[in-house]
């Protein structure tokens, strides 16, 4: 176990260095003046250009620039937004909101996804299974912004059940609709993953043994089948987090949820390049940490991972 | 030592009357040989989902290639006096805020989505096959280096990476740059799938046979290993075409995609946001076109997976 954790932590180091280097490289190794390019068709005041140049140490050789940038990240310095506010300060305000939204979305997709996947898997080929296969295909095909707009139009404008914009200081029930929208992205994947895994586990020897011992279906399904089927679903959480971050950017933007995603969304829309770079860096770092945590959790859940070489 | 060995004979051959001939199971020698591909085709052509998705994709391709066959209205000819008007008077689906014909814009936007999808898929498949094949087949340090490289690219969600690239390249935004921005970060998934499959295939008997006959390593990889491990790549490639179309629309929606002069569903949806309350069909209709296109490729990928992966077939 300790060996696995150590190996996994060691593996994370080159990936961490690589991703930050890649982001930095994409932005500052481009031909032309990268600082001007970052602002698109806008002409920022010379003070802002100067501040960005200073921030990224653009008078230094490239590799020194990158190392200084990396050193800043490790000290919690993610740069300054377009309006001059430190990114870490913005994060302190916006991150809890996004975390609430993400937890709500994951809860919704997990509870509904696993339940429906379990029922589909147990009654493979039935009407319920067949209809949810079609529904999940359609859900996979819908881009998140389409779901968000349709939900906003139907439930917010036509039915008036939810408020269409959330805004700062809103109560948590206002987050329900954005959370449902966010949950639809991965809901279908979780249904299919659970279904496939339940079918797989249902055919294993230990399930047959349990049945021949005379255990009731009521005990076999949750204890023998479901628990062993959840391992791939938990691993999917790691992948899901990347999907959630992109989804949160769009969903928070559309529903005006004052989280990290909306800050990035507005920075993108307004063409504020340096803010975009800072926030993408932060998101990638969060993604890496979550992936690491899920991998460690995976080892706790599945002994085969722990002992494999 | 068997007693009937003779010293002047190199090999002992039993007389014919000592090995009685028995009727062996009859082999259907005139039947067509089957392999993975003929099996898959036999499976696929029985499924309605295959025919529905193929018909839709054929239609989408025809619309993309010959938009003028489907509408005679110029999508760029917009009259502000017709702003947000409903269907009727020679317009099938009505007009958007700028007074452009919605139907015509959807028809002409098809080729943009499809070209981005195809270019990204080509890029993802080439990079993924190249890196995946090298890592899986050669193993050792090549595998270690390429797998870590894949991990790095995999750790940046590709839409976020494309957002960064497109903000830097905003002056050069076009179908080509956006496809490059999406494709350059989307390949590791394909590479991983191919690598895993090659690891499984490369120890097969036919590879050893080829080695024994003296076929070079590179030729074994290209002629024997790759064709036998390409099936999962085909599945993931079909699905990546759908993801690429969604990615382009998302980037255009965020305003870092194609320039507003390029006709694209993502751009139209993005511009229609403000009219969600007053004229929702300007937003809903391009969204439907986008979703149906994505759905047809996802369905095709699904059918391909069921046909090519025996495990998926068993779970149907």
UniProtKB/TrEMBL annotation, chain A:
Keywords: Cell membrane, Membrane, Transmembrane, Transmembrane helix, Transport. The chain crosses the membrane at residues 12-30, 97-120, 132-155, 175-194, 233-255, 275-301. SUPFAM superfamilies: MetI-like (SSF161098). It is a multi-pass membrane protein. Belongs to the binding-protein-dependent transport system permease family. Coiled coil: none annotated. Its main location: membrane. GO terms for cellular component: plasma membrane. This is ABC transporter permease. The keyword Transmembrane applies. GO terms for biological process: transmembrane transport. InterPro entries: BPD_transp_1_N, MetI-like, MetI-like_sf. It is found in: Cell membrane. Residues 95-298 form the ABC transmembrane type-1 domain. The keyword Transport applies. It comes from the Bacteria.
TrEMBL record, chain B:
The keyword NAD does not apply. It is a multi-pass membrane protein. This is ABC transporter permease. It comes from the Bacteria. It is found in: Cell membrane. Residues 110-301 form the ABC transmembrane type-1 domain. CDD domains: TM_PBP2. PROSITE patterns: ABC_TM1. The chain crosses the membrane at residues 50-70, 114-137, 149-169, 175-194, 229-254, 283-304. One of its GO terms (biological process) is transmembrane transport. Keywords: Cell membrane, Membrane, Transmembrane, Transmembrane helix, Transport. Pfam families: BPD_transp_1, OppC_N. InterPro entries: BP-dependent_transpt_permease, MetI-like, MetI-like_sf, OppC_N. GO terms for cellular component: plasma membrane. It comes from Agromyces binzhouensis. The keyword Ion transport does not apply. Belongs to the binding-protein-dependent transport system permease family.
């Amino acid at each position: 176990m300790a060996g696995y954790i150590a190996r996994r932590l060691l593996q994370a180091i080159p990936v961490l260095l690589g991703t930050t280097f890649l982001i930095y490289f994409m932005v500052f190794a481009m031909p032309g003046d990268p600082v001007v390019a970052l602002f698109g068709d806008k002409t920022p005041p010379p003070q802002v250009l100067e501040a960005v140049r200073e921030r990224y140490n653009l008078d230094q050789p490239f590799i020194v620039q990158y190392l200084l940038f990396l050193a800043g990240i490790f000290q919690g310095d993610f740069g300054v937004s377009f309006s001059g506010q430190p990114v870490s300060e913005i994060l302190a305000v916006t991150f809890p909101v996004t975390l609430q939204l993400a937890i709500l979305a994951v809860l919704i997709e997990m509870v509904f996804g696993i339940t429906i996947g379990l029922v589909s898997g147990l009654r493979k080929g039935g009407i319920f299974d067949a209809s949810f296969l079609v529904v999940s295909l359609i859900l996979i095909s819908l881009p998140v912004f389409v779901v968000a707009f349709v939900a906003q139009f139907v439930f917010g404008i036509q039915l008036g059940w939810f408020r269409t914009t959330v805004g700062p200081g809103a109560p948590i029930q206002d987050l329900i609709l954005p959370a449902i929208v966010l949950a639809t992205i991965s809901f279908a994947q979780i249904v299919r993953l659970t279904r496939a895994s339940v079918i797989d586990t249902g055919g294993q020897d230990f399930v047959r043994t349990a049945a021949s011992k005379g255990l009731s279906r009521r005990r076999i399904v949750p204890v023998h089948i479901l628990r062993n089927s959840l391992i791939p679903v938990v691993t999917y959480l790691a992948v899901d987090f990347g999907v959630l971050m992109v989804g949160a950017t769009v969903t928070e933007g559309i529903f005006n949820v004052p989280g990290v995603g909306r800050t990035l969304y507005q920075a993108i829309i307004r063409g504020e390049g340096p803010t975009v770079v800072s926030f993408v860096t932060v998101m990638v770092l969060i993604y890496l940490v979550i992936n690491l945590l899920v991998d460690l959790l995976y080892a706790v859940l599945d002994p085969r991972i722990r002992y494999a070489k | 030592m068997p007693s009937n060995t003779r010293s002047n004979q190199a090999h002992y051959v039993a007389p014919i009357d000592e090995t009685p001939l028995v009727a062996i199971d009859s082999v259907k020698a005139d039947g067509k040989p089957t392999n993975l591909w003929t099996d898959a085709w036999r499976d696929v052509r029985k499924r309605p989902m295959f025919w529905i998705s193929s018909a839709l994709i054929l239609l989408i391709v025809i619309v993309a290639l010959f938009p003028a066959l489907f509408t005679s209205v110029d999508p760029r000819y917009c009259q502000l006096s017709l702003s947000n008007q409903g269907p009727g008077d020679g317009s099938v689906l009505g007009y958007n805020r700028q007074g452009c014909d919605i139907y015509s814009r959807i028809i002409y936007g098809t080729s943009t989505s499809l070209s981005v999808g195809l270019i990204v898929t080509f890029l993802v498949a080439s990079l993924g096959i190249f890196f995946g094949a090298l890592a899986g087949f050669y193993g050792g340090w090549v595998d270690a280096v390429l797998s870590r490289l894949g991990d790095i690219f995999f750790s940046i969600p590709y839409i976020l990476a494309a957002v960064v690239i497109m903000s830097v390249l905003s002056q050069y935004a076009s179908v080509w740059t956006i496809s490059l921005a999406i494709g350059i970060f989307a390949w590791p998934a394909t590479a991983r799938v191919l690598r895993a499959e090659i690891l499984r295939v490369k120890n097969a008997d036919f590879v050893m046979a080829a080695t024994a006959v003296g076929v070079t390593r590179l030729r074994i990889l290209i002629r024997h290993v790759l064709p036998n491990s390409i099936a999962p790549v085909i599945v993931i490639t079909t699905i990546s075409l759908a993801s690429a179309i969604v990615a382009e629309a998302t980037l255009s929606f965020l305003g870092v995609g194609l320039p507003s002069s390029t006709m694209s569903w993502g751009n139209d949806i993005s511009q229609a946001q403000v009219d969600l309350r007053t004229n929702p069909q300007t937003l809903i209709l391009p969204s439907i076109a986008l979703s149906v296109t994505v759905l047809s490729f996802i369905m095709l990928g699904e059918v391909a997976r069921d046909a090519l992966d025996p495990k998926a077939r068993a779970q149907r």
